[in-house]
Amino acid sequence: MAKEEPLSTSKDLKELQKKLSLLVESIQNNLKVIAFMKSPVGQYLDRHPFMALTVLVFVAMSAIPVGFFLLIVVLTALAAFVGVILLEGLVISVGGLSLLCVLCGLSFVSLAMSGTIIVSYVMVSSLFNYWFPPRCNKICIPPVCQQRDL
């Protein structure tokens, strides 16, 4: 029974790897992705993966505050149709300033999270390379001393 589990786990991992590679391939073959990667911004982010990760984390984290802000704007616009014009200006101003503060804070948090993710990746990668060093398929010969005693 113990020997069956690694085989099924290996098959599951191969199947998962195949599905993930098909997903990545379909994303890379998307026309919008190709057009974006040919743009100057896409090329810049391709050359600077830390900046791309920071932008991704920032966009993902700022979606909720921006959604709340837009909800407040729509609700105050509806209230303005009822006749509360001064309240709308006040709420949008306060909401805009609070959104600015939240987005500035999120930019610092996303930068810190990106740094943490990168450092964690490097540490885990180094630990895996230390614990499981790559094996040589050929016979490994230690380096020969180049200076010989004469």
Automatic annotation (TrEMBL):
Keywords: Endoplasmic reticulum, Lipid droplet, Membrane, Transmembrane, Transmembrane helix. Its main location: endoplasmic reticulum. The keyword RNA-binding does not apply. The keyword Manganese does not apply. It is found in: Endoplasmic reticulum membrane; Lipid droplet. InterPro entries: LDAF1. It holds the Pfam family Promethin. One of its GO terms (cellular component) is lipid droplet. The chain crosses the membrane at residues 55-87, 99-124. It is a multi-pass membrane protein. It comes from the Eukaryota. Belongs to the LDAF1 family. This is Promethin isoform X2. It comes from Enhydra lutris kenyoni. The gene is LOC111145909.
